[in-house]
Specification:
Layout (H helix, E strand, L loop, with lengths): L9 H21 L6 E3 L1 H12 L4 H11 L8 H13 L5 E12 L6 H11 L2 E5 L4 H15 L17 E14 L10 E6 L4 E18 L4 E7 L5 E8 L5 H7 L2 H10 L1 E10 L1 E8 L1 H6 L23 E13 L3 E13 L9 E3 L4 E7 L4 E8 L7 E2 L3
Parallel strand pairs: 2-3, 9-13, 10-16
Antiparallel strand pairs: 1-15, 2-4, 4-12, 5-6, 6-7, 6-9, 7-8, 8-14, 10-11, 11-12, 14-15
Family: Belongs to the serpin family.
Pfam family, one: Serpin
Protein name: Serpin domain-containing protein
Length: about 400
């Protein structure tokens, strides 16, 4: 990650961050409740931002509203370009890589301007493919995704999702690995109880007493803790409701403004932290969620207008595949995500506080320098089996 400014000005930076948080929260409220969830709002919005380059008329307006690109206006694609450039710079402290790819059909003609704009803003590489050879095509796409995510994301695009009428597949992949600035000592990890409103579990609970940015928000009935990774550029923000069954209420109340207030209220403080070790993988087909959020035209073959990529207006989004993985342990975190868009024809308490995450909580892996959320999750129960949604 670079140290230079990724955005042209403060207004663009604020708009990009606001759009990022607003989309993340809107999607969280659509995803299945009372279950483990992990996803990358940044990966999803980056993949759809490439599609957005080709959207026109009502399709464009709906995408602007759902993805909150209307906050950035004409700066949308250059803002993504600047931030992707920022992320591409190497740093010795953490590994954070993102990559974009377009697979276009050999059978259909794509507007050259669209491909050029994708390359310009998203550093996209483009490749022609025969989608009628579906098994071979999906294998090649999935191999690229696996390579970009250090083998953490496998089989993103199923073979039966591709056919001779597939116009294009656009993909964003993101991978992160970082060690905590203050690591948990493995000898302090013990089996402890974790409970939600339904069940109790015994799980590996990590512990340390150290200085972290922390706040208690009585109005929201929650604690917040920001755990930095080495280099102080990324952190994991954890929102923990006071009540065992308080997460659903917290999610309903949580807004872009409230999240900003939480981040603004964090203060350095010595805290006793109990945090579960966990692995989580989520797989989503996002079409129903994005449609419910108001982006229905893009998925409707009779209404979609992507004439910026196909002058004949003969293409639409048939599905958005998203898969994400996270592991949190004593050393730090590893996270990866990939999104494929298939186009088809302030108040703190005075005593040493305790942050005991022994009931459901939200967590966000964020660029704490630029205030951009890269990954978002809900930890509902300590079970290693993947939380899957196949709607």
């Amino acid at each position: 990650m670079a140290t230079s400014q990724p955005f042209r000005n403060k207004e663009t930076a604020a708009a990009f961050c606001d759009a990022n948080k607003a989309f993340m929260l809107s999607l969280l409220k659509e995803l299945p409740q009372a279950s483990n969830v992990f996803y990358s709002p940044f990966s999803i919005s980056t993949a759809l931002a490439m599609v957005h380059l080709g959207a026109r008329t009502d399709t464009l307006k709906e995408m602007d509203q759902v993805l909150h690109f209307d906050k950035m206006g004409k700066e949308t694609h250059s803002a993504f370009g600047g931030y992707l450039e920022y992320l591409s710079k190497e740093t010795g402290d953490i590994t954070l890589k993102t990559a974009n790819k377009i697979y276009q059909s050999m059978r259909f003609k794509t507007e050259e301007t669209f491909i050029k704009e994708c390359k310009k803003h998203f550093k996209t590489t483009a490749e022609s493919m025969d989608f009628s050879q579906s098994a071979e095509a999906s294998s090649k796409i999935n191999s690229w995704v696996s390579q970009q995510t250090k083998n953490k994301i496998q089989n993103l695009v199923p073979a039966d999702a591709l056919d001779a009428l597939t116009f294009m597949v656009l993909i964003n992949a993101i991978y992160f690995k970082g060690n905590w600035k203050s690591q948990f000592q493995s000898e302090n990890t013990q089996k402890m109880e974790f409970r939600n409103e339904k069940d109790k579990y015994m799980t590996d609970m990590m512990y340390q007493k150290a200085s972290f940015r922390f706040c208690y928000l009585p109005d929201m009935q929650m604690n917040a803790l920001d755990i930095p990774y080495q280099g102080d550029k990324l952190s994991m923000l954890v929102l923990l409701p006071m009540a065992v069954d308080g997460l659903n209420d917290l999610e309903k109340k949580l807004s872009e403004r409230l999240l900003n207030d939480v981040i603004g209220s964090l203060m350095e403080k010595k805290v006793e932290v109990y945090l579960p070790k966990f692995k989580m993988e989520s797989t989503f087909k996002l079409r129903p969620y994005l449609s419910a959020m108001g982006m229905s035209s893009a998925f409707d073959e009779n209404k979609a207008d992507f004439s910026g990529m196909d002058k004949g207006k003969d293409v639409y989004i048939s599905e958005v595949f998203h898969k994400a993985f996270v592991e949190v342990n004593e050393e730090g975190s590893e996270a990866a995500a990939a999104t494929a868009v298939k186009m088809a024809a302030k108040r703190s308490i005075q005593i040493t506080p305790e942050f005991r995450a022994n009931h459901p909580f939200l967590f966000f892996i964020r660029d704490s320098v630029n205030d951009v959320i890269l990954f978002s999750g809900r930890f509902y129960q300590p079970i290693d089996t993947p939380g899957k949604d196949e709607l």
